[in-house]
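Note to self: keep these together.
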Amino acid sequence: MRKTLKKIAMTISASVMLMAVAVTAVPNIADAVTPVSKAGKKAGKAKFDPEGTYHAYFGLQQTQTWIFRDPWYSETLGIDGTSFEGTDCTFNDFLQSGTDGLVKLDATVTDAEITGNGFYTVSLENINNGLASTDPNAALAMVYVDTDIPVSAKDTVQISDVKLYMDDMPITLPEEVFYNWEEEDASKLLRFDVVNSYQKDQGYYESPSVVAPSDSIKITFKISGMANDNPDAVEPTPTPEPEKDDAATDDNKDDDSSSSSGGMSPALIGGIVVVILVVIGGVVVITKKKK
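Structure:
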């Protein structure tokens, strides 16, 4: 009997440990604030340096699939995340959390280093339909930018001209930048969201409803309030519209000219006119001879 009870206790203990591991590998969800790492707390308490170097990070969460990228300061899934221990995954990877732990997905995550005033871009590219899901309830619940700029700098640093692109197509955003105050209260670091369905459901943010793109997500924004301008941080050039094919246009013009003259070329028409004149001339001469 004692051996049986001991086996049951060991089984329960093992199950609890597995559940604990699984929970730590799950990204931050709607009603939970991201647990802040020591590095995150330190950055949040630091005094803002207008001549310093800061960073902006791409963030995302898809429901049902639990494809995600948590904030850099996440204690479990951030830069120094404890959930990465014993795995080949890092914060720089595009990840999915499942029953077997963390899984790397094929995509390229690009963050930005802020060294002065200017335009910056963070992105997720080469997705290769990695966000596609057969689950009709799966949705991009959050797309955001988290930074290591302390909230205390809000009166100094301005974020503006925020734009969201899905597969290089612009998505309409509200005019005002939406700062995620729940995360900012916890981390003391600036974060702004371009998509947040949770806050939309609560009536705090008119978040756009977006369909998962097949190839890329890009967020561009302007930073002001630093001591210097970054000469390399220029505004991105809009993707040009496809150019019209001049040769095709000329062909169309030729087709129009041909159709307006019954499909005959100018040379053929000229030849017909000459023949008609010759015939008429011959008729006139014959008539005069008969007289």
